[in-house]
Structures are given as C-alpha cells and as structure tokens.
Design a protein that fits this description.
This protein is of the alpha+beta class. The chain has two domains: 60 residues, 2,3-Dihydroxybiphenyl 1,2-Dioxygenase, domain 1; 62 residues, 2,3-Dihydroxybiphenyl 1,2-Dioxygenase, domain 1, CATH 3.10.180. It is built from four helices and nine strands, in the order E-H-E-E-E-H-E-H-E-E-E-E-H. Strands 5, 6, 7, 8 and 9 form a five-stranded mixed β-sheet that branches. A four-stranded mixed β-sheet has the order 1-4-3-2. A hairpin with a 4-residue loop joins strand 3 and strand 4. The longest helix has 13 residues. It is globular and about 50 Å long. The N and C termini lie far apart (35 Å).
Length: 144
C-alpha cells in the first residue's frame, strides 16, 4: 500500500470550504465527513481534512493562525502540464479563491508553477515540471 498524506486544515465555514475544494476538483469522501469535518480527496494518496475551528481544537491547544496574514506552510501539488496549472488556478478563482498569492515560477521549458489561496487563506501551489528538460548534472534550482 502506498503511503498516504492527510492534510488537516482549519476552516471558518465548512460548507463554503467544501464547495470550494469540490470546485477545484476534489471529491468528498462521505465516510469521513460530518458537520465538523470533511474529507476531500485530491488523489488516491492525498486527502485534505477540512476541520471546523471547534474540531481543530480537539487536536491541538495551539491557536489557529490567520492564514490571510500569516503562513505556516505552502502546500504544493503537481500538474500534468503548464495548461493544467493555469486551469487549476482559474478554477480556484472562479470558486472564490485568490490567484497568485506567491510569485509565479516560470523556469522555461522544464518547470512552471502558480498558486492560489482558498477561502481561509491557505496557499496551494500548483507545479508542472519536466525533469527530462533539466540540463544534465544540474539541480533544478541551478538552472532557474
């Protein structure tokens, strides 16, 4: 069995956040969804758990940072093409998200990425990369 990741995010409005994630392509797993949490499936191995603030507080006593003004993590997922990157960001904007809260990364023919914020300010980067296009012997960062 492949290792899976479950990304837990605190959300202010569960219904609004669930609708946003469905609009950008995630599907809801009703087996792990109730009025305090929603399991949104991004892929076979990536799941995002949207948790109300009350539910979040059952996992940690730490304060929930305001993701509109602070950033603790940048979440990054791959895309199949440059066009798919732009399409994902467009879907996020159409669903009420904010486009490009971080700089667009355009490294020519081998890497391209953009980002969006969800309604709670969590930043998702969408990145396409063609490892075959990276010059031999150079790490991707050196080619940029």
């Amino acid at each position: 069995m492949s290792q899976m990741i479950f990304i837990n995010l605190p959300v202010a409005d569960l219904a609004k956040s669930k609708a946003f994630y469905e609009a950008v392509g995630a599907t809801n797993n009703p087996a792990f969804t109730d009025d305090t949490a929603a399991c949104m499936v991004l892929s076979d191995v990536i799941h995002t758990m949207l948790l109300t603030h009350e539910k979040w507080a059952t996992f940690t006593p730490k304060a929930i940072p305001d993701a509109h003004t602070t950033a603790q993590v940048l979440l990054c997922v791959s895309a199949e093409s440059r066009e798919a990157v732009d399409s994902q960001v467009a879907k996020a904007v159409a669903a009420g998200g904010k486009a490009d809260p971080t700089p667009t990364q355009d490294h020519g023919g081998f890497m391209y990425g953009r980002s969006f914020e969800d309604p709670d300010g969590h930043i998702w980067e969408v990145m396409w990369m063609d490892p075959a296009a990276i010059p031999a012997g150079e790490p991707a960062e050196a080619s940029a």
